[in-house]
Amino acid sequence: MAAFTPPLLCAQSSIRTSTGTSQLVQISTVTNGVYTAANINNLVKFSSTRKIALQNSRNVSVKPVAASSSAVEGATSKSDSSMPGGEQKTMKVVGVFYKAHEYAKDPKFLGCAENALGLREFLESKGHTYIVTDDKEGDNCELEKHIPDMDILITTPFHPAYMTPERLKKAKNLKLILTAGVGSDHIDLHTAAEKGMTVAEVSGSNVVSVAEDELMRILILLRNFVPAHTQVSEGGWNVAAVAYKAFDLQGKTVGTVGSGRIGLELLKRLKAFDCKLLYYARHSMGEEKEKATGATWESDLDKFLAACDVVSINLPLSDKTRGMFNKEVLNKMKKGAMLVNNARGAIVDVDAVKEACESGQLGGYSGDVWYPQPPPEDHCWRYMPNQAMTPHISGTTIDAQARYAHGVQEMLEQYFSGKPLPEENYIVREGELAGQYQ
Ligand SMILES: NC(=O)c1ccc[n+]([C@@H]2O[C@H](COP(=O)([O-])OP(=O)(O)OC[C@H]3O[C@@H](n4cnc5c(N)ncnc54)[C@H](O)[C@@H]3O)[C@@H](O)[C@H]2O)c1
Fold first, then answer.
1. What InterPro entries does this protein's entry cite (predicted)?
2. Ordered alpha helix ranges (H), 236-326
3. Ligand 1 midpoint to CA 316 (Å)
4. Residue 50 assigned to a binding site
């Protein structure tokens, strides 16, 4: 790459972020001399001392700086063995999304099978074949027909296409699996790694959507909202039947298990409610984030559980977290504490949660994640007491759909032009699993 030149509209430029990393960005708009750069494409080696404000991973403000021949040491794009390297090969792309039927009319509803993440024109104009289906279960489903010759698979956690070792082994041409959203546990990541496949998701795309939803669930449980709403919808009126176990959030101890992107966003939101905030994590999130949230790190899970009135789970589903909230762990929580789980259904033991809701060990359980998805009609969580369950909705708001659809298109563009994907999106790369899945 040539030496740094002041950014022009629609040009690419290397910048150094406030966190010290260097990035290649696409300059898209300019207001009052401040350039907005989107589409962070690439990591480059770069030694400028210029600092810019990194607002979030996809939106950077860049002040133009005079050209300097010493600014760029040289851009080194890490090559990725799975990239087509700029070949013009046409590919078979398969997308698996939930069907929206009568709700699909609004074109902004990008996440459904009918609107196919808004990718059809983009893919077909490049000569690629784009097959989209919601039919993902069993040996005779539509997805199975395409597994042997698909090149790219796009899936979503909201309607997960379970990519078992058997399915991945049959997928002889499959090189790239993209998750429209966050959480790629529906893919057998170890097999994908063994087979040299790349798995990537749109990291950060729906973390605010989930954190807002978790805050809502915490309030819904504490206020005993669901029985109150059911009561009036059914023609009843009984204040006592709700008020006997309705509580304020203020003054309670609320904790998140996991303090990654969602855990942090939740803590930031909870700060306004004047509660005591704890987080359980493998590492401290650092002084700056602790100060910003007012949260305290507890590295001992037993002590953490014993202290919390409300616990929110914000972990990926991995070999280490599967079944983590079993009967023994639930019994370490305060009697009557509330549990919110928007992470993954399989992180908790289904029967242990049901029994704890029945016995009152859990004062309430709320979440939007199940295993499998969709769950059977007779799944016990639908019928247990003290629950505020929903289908998997928190990360698929219309706003989140726009972000993850954009993120998927961006990754496809990168892949087709032989460039690496945004660093933070990789879940499996060159045989290695991302840190959060280890
Ligand atoms: N319900 C939804 O719609 C929805 C949407 C987005 C994400 N999610 C789920 O939430 C999860 C978290 O998302 P995120 O964006 O915050 O991810 P993240 O990678 O930013 O954070 C995950 C955190 O968990 C920690 N962690 C992993 N294993 C751990 C262990 N064994 N013990 C303690 N900590 C551990 C990691 O160190 C990391 O800090 C996703 O993996 C996904 O499963 C759900």
1. D-isomer_2_OHA_DH_cat_dom, D-isomer_DH_CS, D-isomer_DH_NAD-bd, FDH_NAD-dep, NAD(P)-bd_dom_sf
2. 239-243, 261-270, 287-293, 301-307
3. 4
4. no
